[in-house]
Write a structure and sequence with these properties.
Strand 6 (102-116) and strand 7 (119-126) form a beta hairpin. This protein has helices spanning 12-19, 41-44, 78-84, 93-100, 145-158, 169-177, 179-186, and strands at residues 2-8, 23-36, 47-52, 55-61, 70-75, 102-116, 119-126, 131-139. Strands 1-5-4-3-2-6-7-8 form an eight-stranded antiparallel beta barrel, surrounded by four helices. The chain has a single domain (2-186), classed as Hypothetical Protein Pfu-838710-001. It has seven helices and eight strands. By secondary structure, it is an alpha+beta fold. The protein starts with a strand and ends with a helix.
């Protein structure tokens, strides 16, 4: 699956208007740990290996669409992650991470999830003070991603959201928590 998403920081009034007739799916708390090798090879390749609440996920970033909508391939099964990272399917991901990688970033998030038609809406509050609303659509293949991006932007415009591109949580984490790393990789 491919996740197509855009981050917004709507006013409380705009957010409440968006959530009218949206189905509240639930509230979750996440502890995220991002891992990489000491030479940052995964980060440099656009790979984001994270452990969220004890489960590994690998995001492979794709170029942004116009307006800052982003997409990423998400792999959540250990065999698929091992394969993308170049390890055999019989390898143990937790052991590889423990032995060869470092924690690059860590934070906690309180997320309220909503569903409105084809859109998943996540309202996130992070432990480092970055609060965002993500509107996302999951698509089967990359040929559907541009239409999903357009649909997200159209929905946001209907509610008067600013279309300014916002940084990812990870980028903002580095800006706030690890400014040297931020300068090295983002400026």
């Amino acid at each position: 699956m491919i996740e197509v998403e855009k981050k917004f920081q709507p006013t409380e009034t705009q957010l409440q208007a968006l959530l009218v007739e949206a189905e509240f799916v639930g509230e979750k708390f996440y502890s995220d740990f991002l891992y990489d090798y000491p030479d940052r090879r995964l980060f440099k390749q656009g790979f984001r290996l994270r452990n969220r609440n004890g489960n590994f996920e690998l995001k492979i970033l794709r170029p942004d669409f116009e307006g800052g909508t982003s997409s990423a391939e998400e792999i959540e099964d250990e065999t698929g992650i091992l394969e993308k990272l170049g390890f055999g399917k019989d390898s143990n991901l937790a052991e590889i991470v423990s032995r060869e990688m470092n924690i690059l970033a860590s934070w906690e998030t309180k997320r309220k999830k909503y569903k409105k038609g084809q859109f998943n809406i996540d309202v996130d509050e992070t432990s480092f003070g970055y609060n965002v609303c993500e509107i996302e659509v999951m698509v089967e293949n990359s040929s559907e991603a541009e239409e999903a991006s357009t649909n997200i932007m159209t929905l946001a415009q209907e509610f008067g959201f600013s279309l300014t591109k916002l940084p990812s949580k990870l980028k903002e984490y580095f800006r706030v928590m690890k400014p040297d790393f931020y300068k090295e990789f983002y400026q």
